[in-house]
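Weekly modeling sync, notes
Attendees: S.R. (lead), two postdocs, one rotation student

Agenda item 3: backlog of single-chain predictions. S.R. asked that every request posted to the team notebook include the full sequence so nobody has to chase files. The rotation student volunteered to paste the first one in as an example of the format we agreed on. Action items at the bottom.

Example entry:
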Amino acid sequence: MITISVVLIVKNEEDVLARCLDSVRTAADEIVIVDTGSTDRTREIAAEYTSAVYSFDWIDDFAAARNYAFSLATSAYILWLDADDIFLEADREKLLKLKAELPTNIDAVSMNYHLAKDEYGRVTSSLRRNRLVKRSRGFRWIGAVHEYLEVHGPSLASDIAVTHASLRHDSDRNLRIYEKRLAAGEFFNARDTFYYANELKDHGKYEQAIAQYAKFLSSGEGWVEDNISACAKLSDCYSSLGNDDMMLHYALISFRYGTPLPEFCCRIGYWHLQKNAFDTAAYWYQAALLTPKSAQTWSLTSDQCATWLPHLQLCVCFDRLGDHARAYMHNEKAREYRPHDASVLHNKKYLEGILFPDKTKSEPLDQQEDKVSI
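Predicted structure, as returned to the notebook:
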């Protein structure tokens, strides 16, 4: 059985820290907490779980803080978390099993990172992160903001998930750091440029974001996952600016970097749907459903584009084409994912009125719906 040091960097996390540590303490041989300047009860709460509570002077550099935290670990493996992350019960059991069975030749274990769920508890946004690494390998964090852990050697892609359960977020912090670095004349590499563009987009500065994404793509130095993501975000920026043609353009540009992903198929389908090209739109929504889903997804994914959303939009397309049976079939598929969704229920009522009139003929005419909901 391996030993595990659970390592966190924290600042003013009194509302979530205990929840995080409670979720992982049974798997931890050691807990290391590095505080970067808390003014609340964070250090006091941390001391209830471990004596290994340290301070680090914040220098606007997440990698520096994480590398310092890693240097304090003493177990064979290091598991890193943020204070607003948790292991759900099923994942904690998987983690304990992994701890008991992990071959010692494995240098890194990646885990799913669940970022958001819908009202039915289904994951809607996720990615994959290297979470557990062999301490003796001396792996390092890179990047002042949106840092990543550079690993190599034998690795394992586990089905364990870490769930992000944030209660609050300093939405301006990262943008402030980037702008401070720019003002100091610091050089931005391709990855810096990509994540700076993300911050600009998230703050509604779409024109500036577009310029940075374009700079990033033109460098030719980005990771494939980031290139694909940049195309998606450029598409979003142009959509927010009302430029649907450029939205379509960058959805198509994404195909340069690999197999068409469901998100882009849905974007292209929507463009054609808005043009009333229902046959073409249906083609792209069907393509979204047929795109293979990779077991290892390192870039951010939106599961809705591979599940209920294409079915709901195919219902719209086939209704407009007069194929109500296929419209109904796709709406029922969408209903499997979203049984109480207002649009899905609206469509069900309307289409059953067409397909099964004997069951609805007693309903007053003014309550009948006249079209499918998008």
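Discussion: group reviewed the output briefly. The chain has three domains: 4-164, 171-258, 267-374.
Action items: rotation student to repeat for the remaining queue; S.R. to check formatting next week.
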